[in-house]
TrEMBL record:
Residues 13-22 have a biased composition (Basic and acidic residues). It is found in: Mitochondrion membrane. Residues 3-94 form the HIG1 domain. The lineage of its organism: Eukaryota, Metazoa, Ecdysozoa, Arthropoda, Crustacea. The chain crosses the membrane at residues 29-50, 62-85. This is HIG1 domain-containing protein.
Length: 103
């Protein structure tokens, strides 16, 4: 019956550890790693800068939010550019290497 295997993909990852799950997600979505690294860096910068700030708190938090939004936009732009390159530009520039990966 076809209904027996519904949701089977979720069960295949049932026994994996946190590090194995992070490694699998990094292979599936490499920009997630960049996002996590950016988040970690921005939080560290925020804590350091909040301790040593020369601005009012509200203005500092606004600057921090704008920096975070800029990082997200940069990651999204890089991800879209990478996908466009691999789907449209790379097959035209390197047709023999694309045919090798389809086999």
């Amino acid at each position: 019956m076809s209904g027996e295997n519904s949701g089977g993909s979720n069960m295949s990852h049932h026994g994996e550890t946190h590090s194995e799950r992070l490694a699998r997600k990094a292979r599936d979505a490499p920009f997630m790693v960049a996002g996590l690294a950016g988040l970690t860096g921005l939080v560290a910068y925020g804590i350091y800068g909040f301790k040593n700030r020369q601005l009012k708190t509200s203005l500092y938090l606004i600057h921090l939010r704008v920096g975070a939004q800029g990082f997200v936009v940069a990651c999204l732009t890089a991800g879209v550019g990478y996908n466009l390159y691999t789907k449209f530009l790379a097959p035209k520039l390197f047709p023999e290497s694309v045919e090798d990966t389809k086999e």
